Amino acid sequence: MAEGMNTALNTLLDVLKSSGADAWEVSDREESGWEFYFIRHRLDQHRAKQIRAFSVKVYKKFDAFLGSATAEIPCDASAEEMRRTVDGLCSDASYIRNPFYTLNQPKPAEESGDPSAEPDLEAISGDFIRAMAAVPETETEDLNSYEIFVSKIRNHFMNSEGIDVTAVYPSSMLEAVVNARRDGHEIELYRLFDSGSCNREQLTEDISEALAYGRDRLITSPTPALGKIDVVFSTDPARELYSYFIDRLSTGMVYRGISDWKPGDTVAPPTLTLQAVKFLPNSSRNAAYDVEGAPIRDLTLIDNGVAKSYWGSRQFSQYLKVEDSFQASNFKVTGGTESAESLRSGDFLEVVEFSDFQCDAITGDIAGEIRLAYLHQNGKVTPVCGGSVSGSMPELISSFRFSEELRQYDCLQIPAVTRLHDVTVTGAE
Q1: By mean pLDDT, which of 38-52, 105-119, 311-325, 338-352 is the weakest?
Q2: In degrees rounded to 5, what are phi and psi of residue 32?
Q3: 20 to 30 A from 169, CA-CA: which of 70, 114, 138, 420?
Q4: CA proximity to 311, closest of 362, 335, 273, 298
Q5: CA–CA distance from 271 to each of 133, 235, 306 (Å)?
Q6: Model's pTM, two decimal places?
Q7: So where are the chain's domains?
Q8: H or E stretch covering 90
């Protein structure tokens, strides 16, 4: 099998070298893994999977311009099928006129902080199953079903400049549906968790949290029209707030004029530090190289509120004269000066469930419809539902408060609790 796949790859490389393409990139991606489907805690079915395909990108030069086109080629395609596809890509690339840039050159990666080179799928699967078995259920709140997907990714990347590197890492996903019942009424909450390996303790806590939210969702009152009030974020919608800083320091957004942030500008709260990091425990993106073959490394993007560096693709980084570039995979935000407990003092609305929450990276506008929140007012806590929150990140940054404690969402580690001052909250009525 392996010999046949290597023959297919060699055939593809021969086709590319004789195609007339001025440059090319190939990603040989193989995913092997296991899938488990549970009804409550009973294993309904399970299966193994193995998927392999080639992703090809060809380039054509025209004076000061460079065109490119991309396609996926099945690993069992014949030489003739590969040739037709590559010829078509060369033709398509000839119609594209991007300012010229060069591809990445071979460069060794830094030593990884990950102690395990080969993912142990059996161990990771066992951790997921044991974590779900440890969830404390009750007669009124329990697990309806869950599905576990555990994979090993092996990505072999090559380009016409001589890069030939392989990254191996785990990638997992868990989907769960929890139920809560009260007085003849029932509600379902859906959860999706992406990760590399499994953090058993955190996953059990996350599912237990979902069960509690299901219980409280059944006893909510309509959200009152609160006008301006402090809003606390402590669940995954908080990712949107910190992605705003990440996105606006990407070379693609800066080159297109969507972001005007520059190194040296004060762009974030005074203590906030944002880093692109090569390795995060249990992340699904702990690869040594990015999708263009550039080594991934640790890099400070914001230091105590001041922009320091850009990150991004080879193309847009070169346009900004950033030569030592890479596409970051993991991010970490630190610098909180308050405890999570202190951020939950006084009057505020803690929103834990949105039907949808977004932070526009271009305008900085935030908005979301409330599904479950806890209104802390005059020493009383009331679960509420309905209404919405809205505001503007450029206006809210000056009063941004965030905790010392951190919480990780796959490839993003951020403060566990974030408090925004004077967010607009409309009522449900």
Answers
A1: 105-119
A2: -125, 140
A3: 70
A4: 298
A5: 40, 22, 9
A6: 0.94
A7: 1-219, 222-429
A8: helix 79-93
Q: Which residue matches tokens 């949105």?
A: 354
Kindly report the CATH number that applies to the domain delimited by 1-219: 3.30.2290.10
Position 396, amino acid: L
d(CA 216, CA 211): 9
Strand partners, 232: 350, 419
Give the three-class secondary structure for 13: helix
Cβ atoms of residues 231 and 389 within 8 Å: yes
CA distance linking residue 48 with residue 121, whole number of Å: 11
pLDDT higher than 50, residue 116: no
Report which DSSP code applies to 96: -
User: By three-state DSSP, how is residue 350 classified?
Assistant: strand
d(CA 359, CA 388): 14
Of residues 166, 167, 168, 156, the one with CA closest to residue 12: 156
CB 262 within 8 A of CB 269: no
DSSP per position, 180-246: EEETTEEEEEEEEEEESS--HHHHHHHHHHHHHHHHHHTT-EEPP--EEEEEEE-STTHHHHHHHHH
Kindly tell me the sign of the dihedral angle through the C-alpha atoms of 131, 132, 134, 136.
Answer: positive
Report yes or no: 105 and 162 within 8 Å, Cβ to Cβ.
Answer: yes
Ordered alpha helix ranges (H), 349-397: 393-396
Q: Please report, in angstroms and rounded to a whole number, the separation of the first and last CA atoms in the chain.
A: 63
SS3 category, 80: helix
Distance of alpha carbon 230 from alpha carbon 342, whole angstroms: 13
113 φ, ψ (degrees, to nearest 5): -85, -5
What's the rounded Cα separation, in Å, for the pair 89 and 94? 9
pLDDT tens-digit readout, 124-144: 999 999 999 999 999 999 999
- Grade residue 108 by pLDDT with cuts at 50, 70 and 90: confident
Q: Whose structure tokens read 């993991």?
A: 330
CA dihedral 154→159→164→168, nearest 10 degrees, is: -20
Output the DSSP codes for 119-183. Answer: --HHHHHHHHHHHHHTS---SSEEEEEEEEEEEEEEEEEEETTS-EEEEEEEEEEEEEEEEEEET
Q: What is the mean pLDDT of residues 358-364?
A: 95
Tokens of 237: 């919608």
- CA dist 205 and 195 (Å) reads 15
- With cut-offs at 50, 70 and 90, classify the pLDDT of residue 323: confident
User: How many residues are given for the chain?
Assistant: 429
- How many whole angstroms separate alpha carbon 58 and alpha carbon 67? 8
